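Q: Got a minute? One more chain.
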Amino acid sequence: MRSFLFFISLCFLFLSSCEPKKPSSILLTSEEMKELILLDSVQLIDVRSVEAFREGHLKGAQNLIYDEDFIEKINQLDKTKPVAVYCRTGRRSEKCSKILKKAGFEQIYQLKDGLSQWKYKDELIIDTLSQY
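A: Always. Here it is, folded:
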């Protein structure tokens, strides 16, 4: 009986000492993201393909494609500044947010449900150049 109580006590102590897991990013609505990108200090990252980026992206966004070189690309960003990341639906940007967190970025924002839910479609920048 003593060993059982000791085991229960240890389990309780262990579970109560665990910190809750922090999310990798803060989800923002279109309105909140629009406000955030007005700040000079935010690094805005579009993780979609080049083709999708050319079809329409947020003003001031950098196109850092989510691929095997993504970690190398984000290492060129300033880890002390906030980062806002988006894609088409939010799935890719969620994966990228986790990578950014592991890389040491602390202020990470993500557009909830991606550009598919962006309310200001008339403000998207469309590249008319066929190649960069």
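A: The CA atoms of residues 43 and 77 lie 8 Å apart.
Q: Perfect, thanks.
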